[in-house]
Task: structure prediction
Amino acid sequence: MASSDKCAAKFNPVSAPDYLPKKQLQSLQLSRLKMIVQRAYDYVALFRQRMDQRKVTPDDIQSLDDITKLPFTVKTDLRDTYPFGLFASPISDIVRLHASSGTTGKPIVVAYTQKDIDVWASVMVRTFAACGLGAGDIIQNSYGYGLFTGGLGAHYGAESLGATVIPTSGGNTDRQIMVMKDFGVTAICCTPSYFLHLIERASEMGVDLKALPLRVGVFGAEPWTDSMRIRIEKGANIKAFDIYGLSEIIGPGVASACCAQEGLHIFEDHFYPEIIDPETLEPLPDGTEGELVFTTLSKLAMPAIRYRTRDITEIITEPCSCGRTIRRIKRVGRRSDDMFIIRGVNVFPSQIEEALLAVEGTLPHYQIVLTRKGDLDQMEIQVEVTADVFSDKVRALEELQHKLGQSVEHTLGIRAKISLVQPHTIQRSEGKAKRVIDNRDMS
Amino acid sequence: MKINQLSVFLENKPGRLSEPCEILAANGINILTLSLADTEQFGILRLVVKEWEKAKRVLEEAGTVVNVTEVVALEVADRPGGLEDVLKVIESGDINVEYMYAFTTFSKNKRAILVFRFEDADRAVAYLRDHDVNVIDSVSLYQNLK
Result:
C-alpha cells in the first residue's frame, strides 16, 4: 500500500488505518460505534434521556446507517452541561482537560483519558505523515499552548511521530523567525494568516524563507482558500497543508490534507462523518454539500454523538490519488450559523452584542466588518450613534469608542476597531440587520 | 442668558456635512454660526440657529442625531487683546472651557461675539457678569445680528 503513496518516503506504520479496505474500515467503524453509543447511553445522562425520548436503545445500532436514529448534539449542549456534564469517565480516569471559547463567557470544556490522548497523538501522527513529515524533521509548533487544543495536540503528535518539536507557541514573531532560521526548522504548525504575517516580517528582517530548510507548513484553526495556499507556497517555497479539527471532537487531527492536496482525509476510523441538510437535518449522500456532523468512535472521556460542527462542506466521492482509502472532505469555507473565525478565535455575534450591551446598557445597531489588512485579519465594529449616547463633546464620543473597544477586547480577547456611524446607515434586511460582512479576500 | 446650540453627529465621509445644511436650507432655517469638530473617524457639527426647536425637529425627521446644549455668547471688543481680556476673566474664575468658536458676523456695535461651551454654564454666566463681561442672551443676540 505504501508503494502507491506519493508521500511514501515518509510512510509511518501508524498511518496503516488510512489505507484500510472499505469493508474492513466499515466493520471497524460499526463495532466502535456500538461501543461508543453504549458508553454514552450508560454514562451520560443527556444522551440517555434523549435516546429514551426517541425510544432508541444502543441495541438499535446494527448498521452504520442506523446512526441516523440517534439524536444530534450541538455546541449549546456542552455549555448547558458545563463543566463536566457530558463526561463518560470518572474524573480519576481523566488525565487532561482543555477548554475553548464559548458563547456566553463560559468556555466549553473537553476531557481526555490516557487512551484518548494516545488516539489524539496517533491521528496527529497520521496528519503529519500525510503532510510528508517524519523522524528527522524539526517541527516548530506555533499553535498556542494552553487551554486551546491546537498547541498540545500538535505537540504530542509531533513527538510521537519521532520528529524534533520546538514548542514556540504563538506570538513573538521576530523570535519565531530567528528560531526557524537558526534551528534549521523543516516544518511549521500555525494558522495560515499568521504564516503570511511571518513571511512579511521575515522579509522586513532580511530573512529569505525560501532559502531556509523549511519545506512544510501544517496550517489550520481558521478558514483559508486554495489560492491563499498557493500564495504561501510561492512566498516561502514550501508545501502548505490544510488540517481540520475542533475541540469538541478531539482538537486538531480530525482531518488532514495529503500530498495530493485535493481535500482533507477524515480519520474516519475514529471520527465518523455525516453530511446533513442544516435546515431539515436529513442526511445527505456523499458528493452533496451540507453541514458536517461527527460521531467520535473511540473517545472514552467525552463521546460526541452526531455533533453538529456547523461547518459546510461535502464528502468527496472519488478515491484520492495518494492511495488513502479514508474519505475526504472539501476544504471548509463557511458555516451554517453566523459564527466566524478571526485570528484563530471563534466569534459569535451574540458575544459582541453582550460586549456592546455592557457599556451603555442598550444595544445599538451594529455591524461587524471583517477585512484582511496585509496578511492579518481585522475586525471593525460599526456602531450607530443614538441620541442616548451622543454628545457635543469629542472627548465623550472618543471615550465611548474606547469603552466599547475595551469591552469587546475583554470579552473576545481580540482587538476590534470601533467606528461610530450615523443612525440608519447600517443596512437592514427584512427588519434584521446583517451582522457580519466578511470582506476578507482569501485569495 | 444661555443659548441653545444644536450638535449633529457626522461620519467623517465625503458629503456628510452638506446633508444637514441642505435640510436646514430646505426648511428656510438660517445658520447664524457653526463650528465643526472632527476626528479621523467622525465629526460633530455645532450650530446656532434662531429657530432651534424647528431645526432639531427637521434634522431628526431626516434621521440625524441631534443634541441640544446650552452655550454662552460673549461680546468681545474688536481690537488686539479683546479676546485675551475675556479669557483672563475666565481663567481667574477657574472656569473650565470645553470648547469655543467665533460668530461669523459682528454685532451692530462692531463687537465680536464668541460662543463658549463651559463645563458649568450657570456658574460661568454668574461669574462673568460679576466681572463685567457682556453675556448676551438669545433675544438680544438675534436682534443684534439682524
The first strand of chain A starts at residue 94 and ends at 100. Chain A has two domains: 2-337, 341-438.
